[in-house]
Amino acid sequence: MTTIKKILIANRGEIACRVMRTCQRLGISTVAVYSEADAKALHAEVADEAYLIGPPAARESYLVMDKILDVAKKTGADAIHPGYGFLSENEEFAEACEKAGIIFIGPPASAILAMGGKSEAKALMEKARVPLVPGYHGDKQDERFLSAEAEKIGYPVLIKASAGGGGKGMRVVETAKDFSEQLAGAKREAKAAFGDDHVLIEKYLANPRHVEIQVFADRQGNTVYLFERDCSIQRRHQKVLEEAPAPGLSEATREKMGAAAVAAAKAIGYVGAGTVEFLLDAKENFYFMEMNTRLQVEHPVTEYITGLDLVELQIRVAEGQKLPFTQNDLKIDGHAMEVRLYAEDPANNFLPGAGQIKFLRFPLESDKVRVDAGVREAPFGQGDTISIHYDPMIAKVIAHGKDRKTCIETLKRALDETMVAGPKTNLVFLRTLLSNKAFIEGKVSTHFIKEHEKELLPAKHALSKETLGLAVLGLMKERERMPSAPDAASPWNDLSAWRIGGADVETFKFTDGGKEHIVTATSRRGFSHPELSVEGKKIAAAFEGSSYDLSYDAKLDGQHFNAVLLHEGRHLTLMYGSHHEELHYLDPLSYEAEDDEGDGRLHAPMPGKVVAVRVELGSKVKKGQPLIIVEAMKMEHTITAPSDGEVLSIHARVGDQVDEKLELIAFK
């Protein structure tokens, strides 16, 4: 039996910080590796030692085994924790660690190899008589052959990358005429994300649930399952919310799925933490999808309902220790949920985003609320940057309750206390999801977001009097925080509407959807109780307490608010309670160039690489026709024609790296 004293974490972001937190509690030293893009990242700062391993692109840093092993040898690390993603499911890396005499905190290379390819894994499960979704999982990759297999299966079908998951290299194909285009896109994404463009084809099930079983095994042959997680709430085949246990699942099905997962793990000689993923239909029939031979992003919900630290268990098993419990010792305690806070735009098909975090506040952690994050809170606008090179997840917010209803309410309160500004996020979407009637009733499936799109992504509402009033108070409070001039007492340096012998009366103008909103504020210089007139209706207002960072406490008609206002040019971001509002402020002291959107110039939605140009100069195109495909964050984003028209000019070629909002095509 070995005692691990120093661990190198071969990962970044929240999982690196998560592993370090457990190591710190156990008295184990940690070593971080970081790319040039992560030079100031949180995980590099909190580790005991940190080393640069290359440029921002993962293939030149976090995916280079030799660089990571060199750091491990140089620092005397006796173990490597791979986290999830990157090299966590790479059997060559596990073998290289073993050859170097370094403990790989994960399963043996043979187990990773057995489950590393979806096709091979399904073949293995088929021999073990584990139910499979109908499909083709073989090696033949000729387009004509795959198309014929799709016809045999029957549309709709699902194309999936064989070498990985996370929604990368995955396409739903509704009809035969779309197969060729979708297959090409899936193969490109698979190649970019996993270095392997092999795919498999499966029958696309209607309204299934995605339920996975957490397994754990030691080196003595003991294997248990730590119950299930329901991960059905997804967009682009990527998880948004996970919960444990699965709502409405019968105890009989839980035991059957658990037994199947344990059998799968034992069949490949598994060791450590792993997850066996299933699709579950309305009659609780379940079908094997894949096995993830690593820790999962959603592991905190399992930790909450079992009371176990899965990272500590990974370390103990890697040291050669026996699992300290049997299956009969394990019980489910309450209910837990996790939501993933992403930099993305739900209103624009959940397009991933990037950029500096200008403001970030998380809820206070407790025995019922937990936040796993790899970025810093940023009270003074100096937040970390969400990079285009990696997954755009900002944090995970997790809650626990005695039952599902209590858990939902706890998580909703935690999200109401969460504030983030800078890149667009899915925070409001998550709040809306938790209030959805069908979700509260547990009526979930992998199509939930699509089926409830109108409820979850409602049309933009009109600005309320509270929003307009708080925006004005925020602008007034902002002036107080501005650096004082040498002669600050002079009325010539006062930016308010102060005048000699009278009350201050100032007019604020905002626009929203082409409509103008006018608010007047009347007060005397230095007076903290202005009277507001919003759209002609008077509101009593008052500042309360002392403000800090960008937040302020205020009352409007006797109701208390804590708000945050971020002011950039004419753009305002206002956050309070469950609200996240974007306003256009007609600031008389600022100037902005007119926006040229809608003039026929199509721009890159985010920084990325052009992987395909589908048109030529002078092409006549139809509305919705693909024009250019840009790859960013390992996902492909297709820019389509906004209407019927003609391509006047093309400003990008395949292989070009393009910046956000760079003009790609002039379109008539």
Note the topology.
Layout: E1 6-9, H1 13-26, E2 29-35, H2 42-46, E3 49-54, H3 65-75, E4 79-81, H4 91-99, E5 103-104, H5 109-116, H6 118-127, E6 135-136, H7 143-153, E7 157-161, E8 171-173, H8 179-194, E9 199-203, E10 209-217, E11 223-235, E12 238-244, H9 251-267, E13 272-280, E14 286-292, H10 299-306, H11 310-318, E15 335-342, E16 344-345, E17 351-352, E18 355-356, E19 359-361, E20 369-373, E21 385-386, E22 393-401, H12 404-416, E23 419-421, H13 427-434, H14 437-440, H15 448-451, H16 453-456, H17 465-481, E24 504-512, E25 515-523, E26 531-534, E27 537-548, E28 551-556, E29 559-568, E30 571-576, E31 579-585, E32 601-603, E33 608-613, E34 620-621, E35 626-632, E36 635-640, E37 645-650, E38 657-658, E39 663-667
Parallel strand pairs: 1-2, 1-4, 2-3, 4-5
Antiparallel strand pairs: 6-9, 7-8, 7-9, 10-11, 10-13, 11-12, 12-15, 13-14, 15-22, 16-17, 18-21, 19-23, 20-22, 24-25, 24-31, 25-26, 26-27, 27-28, 28-29, 29-30, 30-31, 32-39, 33-35, 33-38, 34-37, 35-36, 37-39
Helix pairs in contact: 4-5, 12-13
